[in-house]
Amino acid sequence: MSQAALAERSAKVRSSLEAITFEDGIGADIVGFDFDNIDEAQVAQLRSIWLQHGVVRFRGYQISDEQHMLLTSMLGEFVKHPRQLKGEEGAHPRHEEILVIGNEEVDGKVAGTMGNSEATWHTDTWFYEKPPAAALLHAIKLPPAGGDTMFADMYAVYEAIPEGLRKELEGRLVQFDRVYDAAGRLRLNQSVPDTDDIRLWPGVRHPIVRTHGESQRKCLYIGAETSSGWIVGLPLDESSAILKELFDYVRQPRFHFTQVWEDGDMIMWDNRCTMHRRDGWDGQYVRVMHRTTTEGERPFYTY
Ligand code: SIN
Known about the structure:
Bound molecules: succinic acid
Radius of gyration: 20 Å
Distance between the termini: 50 Å
Strand order of the largest sheet: 1-2-3-17-9-19-4-7
Shape: globular
Order of helices and strands: HEEHEHEEEEEEEHHEEEEEHEEEE
Largest sheet: 8 strands, mixed
Structural class: alpha+beta
Oligomer: single chain
Strand content: 25-35%
């Protein structure tokens, strides 16, 4: 293709990418993305829309695993969840970059992680030093009902909490345990702790109010409802009461967008400033999703 034709195509792509904002608090549909010609200009425009809206959806596209992975690779370095590595329950048959989430049985064995149960509020891979920035979840097979995914806007939650509480949290660290996963199972290479004091468990510490590495806005970062979190320096009962109060905010529908999946939908969320949960579904039906994630910055806080 000549330079002139390339320039014309690139200009067309730039001018045709559009964001249609959802009526709910956050999120937008992306219209006009060309998965057959993913280039830097398109990805730059997509990144800026995604940073603004926190959650974007591709609906009505045919997206292959290869296109899904190519887009992800242009957004950042892949993060590989422990369950997506070769031989693990969420491993993709060919691509270690993809986590398979679902309940489909292949050769008499469930070929996916997380099963069909409800998943409570969390951010992805919050127990890593550098949790993911982007997560891209592609619907491969869907049940007739259930399995909706809810996203919460953590900038808005941060702004909504009472000022006194905000001041109490600014600059503090929260410790998340690395021992158990969201389903309460021991994580790979972990053993049952020999104490009930969660402060002594292997964990990772992150600022509970974090400054987003790209937007520079502040948001609340509280890992997962199921994690044994401790706000470092506070007595345990006080820390637990505050975390409970914060999750009560996250649960308020005014901060949410609900994704009712349609065949082939792909959602790309910013894992730094959103949380998500999903509904369960009737286990006689199959739901299979492919997820990729990209490395984010080490969470930090600036006054
Ligand atoms: C996830 O928690 O990343 C998966 C959400 C879903 O299955 O809808």
